[in-house]
Automatic annotation (TrEMBL):
Organism: Chloropsis hardwickii
Name of the protein this chain belongs to: ACY2 Aspartoacylase
GO molecular function, one term: hydrolase activity, acting on carbon-nitrogen (but not peptide) bonds, in linear amides
Entries under InterPro entries matching the protein: AspA/AstE_fam, Aste_AspA_hybrid_dom
Any GO CC annotation of this UniProt entry: cytosol
Tree of life domain: Eukaryota
Gene3D superfamilies: Zn peptidases (3.40.630.10)
PANTHER family reported in the protein's UniProt record: ASPARTOACYLASE
AstE/AspA barrel-sandwich hybrid domain segment(s): 44-125
């Protein structure tokens, strides 16, 4: 499956649809080239690995007491470093990110995740290495 976004529920966006078409075309091109016997050399790629889900700050009754800070909103896949603003309480207090490494949040303030108690997902940037790939004929 391919999920391309962000895109609000029930909204069709031309830019997101275009990105989805491009990634599906690249995938189909790869399958065709592989099936034709093309050899792909080893390569390294940067990816984002999920670390953990982060909930909104809540009071003892389980009610949300802070929202995503404006500097974090719409910053999916951008670095969040120790001390950077993370949440903003309803009283205007900034709650900074406190962590021992830079993370890359995604799914920030997605409406579909409120009920799942998820403000965003912390990811880490890692590198994956793929070996040479070619069709093996049996």
């Amino acid at each position: 499956g391919v999920e391309v976004g962000p895109q609000p529920q029930g909204v069709a966006r031309a830019d997101v649809l275009d990105k989805m078409r491009k990634i599906v075309k690249h995938g189909l091109d790869f399958v065709q080239l592989f099936n034709e016997g093309k050899e792909f050399p080893p390569c390294t790629i940067e990816v984002f690995k999920i670390m953990e889900k982060v909930d909104y700050p809540r009071n003892k009754n389980g009610e949300i007491i802070a929202i995503i800070h404006p500097k974090l909103q719409d910053q999916d896949w951008q670095p969040l470093k120790n001390g950077d603003p993370q949440f903003l309480t309803l009283d205007g207090e900034v709650i900074p990110y406190q962590g021992n490494c830079t993370v890359y949040p995604t799914f920030i303030n997605e409406a579909a995740y409120y009920e799942k108690k998820q403000a965003f997902v912390k990811t880490e940037k890692i590198q994956l290495t793929a070996k040479q790939l070619r069709l093996s004929v049996s």
